[in-house]
Amino acid sequence: MKKVVTWILIANGTQARVLEHGGPGKGLTSIKGLEWSIPPLQTQEIDSDRQGRGPTGGAMEARTDPAQHREAVFVKSVATALEEKQGEFDRLVISAAPIALGNLRKALSEGVKKRIVGELDKDLTNVPTAQLSKHFDGIIAV
Fold it and tell me: Where are the domains of the chain?
């Protein structure tokens, strides 16, 4: 009988990692090469001091928040990586900050979405691996 491989994606808008669930009582292990992060924005990169000028000379509001746009692009790159690796796992559990989870839902391919067995709208990116199991009780048998 083939072993069922379950991956757990832990993410927010600036960092993500994938862990493999080895089965009940076997814990979670990090998967090398499936960890991503982007450096935090500097204050001057978030917004300029003045509003831009429109074609008629009036002030223009920014159409998108630079930080939100950057996080959406980051989450899309994580979704692309999962799509490329979808043959390596059978089931996927996602734990992500609420905004990142929404962006992930939009960015994931149908093939990856079919493998999702549970979601948790919680940012667990800073929780040590040894303490993650208790957060998934009820979603998977850890």
Answer: 1-8+64-128
